[in-house]
Amino acid sequence: MVALYTSLFSLGSVSECLQTLLAQGIRLYPAHIPWLQGMADLRYAGHEPTSSLRHYLEACLVSSEYFSRPVPRTVLSEAVLRRMIKCCSALHCYTQAAVLCQFLDDVDYASAFQYASERSCSDAMDAYYECVWDVTLLEFLTSLHHRRAERTKRQQVIKLIGQLELNSNNNEEIQREAAAVRKARFLRAMVKQYAA
């Protein structure tokens, strides 16, 4: 039955029509989050990771007033985060993907460690370390750089682990604030790269 309905429509035509509609909607209402999310989803489905990331980030930007407040979970949901991680991975921006793994409700350590271990990385690896707030990920990075004999990078990560606000004995409020500051810093950097 499904095959009957899909044969009546050209998927390319529907996609083109939807893209035209979304582009016009964004042109008329550039701060309308559902239009931006719809375009991001369409670009993701069309295997256009750069454009997809740009629209997801623009939706985050608009919803948080340029990250002056937290991005609502309705905009940066688990599904959207996983799509953004896949987009970064497709672009060989593995450090960005690893940092985004922290944004998930349950940190995806397996993926974060895998991405952090990639040698052929197309992003500024250690420039994003200041955006990491998860101590487990920072400890993994320390170990990784030790195994690779990358002394300078290892020292940089050790210095980050020593920051007072990342202390695991801090109360929840301080830990949440430290995470929020680093999330905003990271998302601003992503916007500069993909949406500027």
UniProtKB/TrEMBL annotation:
Subcellular location: Chromosome; Nucleus
Domain INTS8 TPR repeats: 9-194
Pfam families for the chain: TPR_INTS8
Main location: nucleus
InterPro entries: INTS8, TPR_INTS8
Alphabetical GO biological process terms: snRNA 3'-end processing
One GO CC term, this protein: integrator complex
Keyword terms of this UniProt record: Chromosome, Nucleus
Similarity comment: Belongs to the Integrator subunit 8 family.
The protein's name in its UniProt record: Integrator complex subunit 8
Annotated organism of origin: Amphibalanus amphitrite
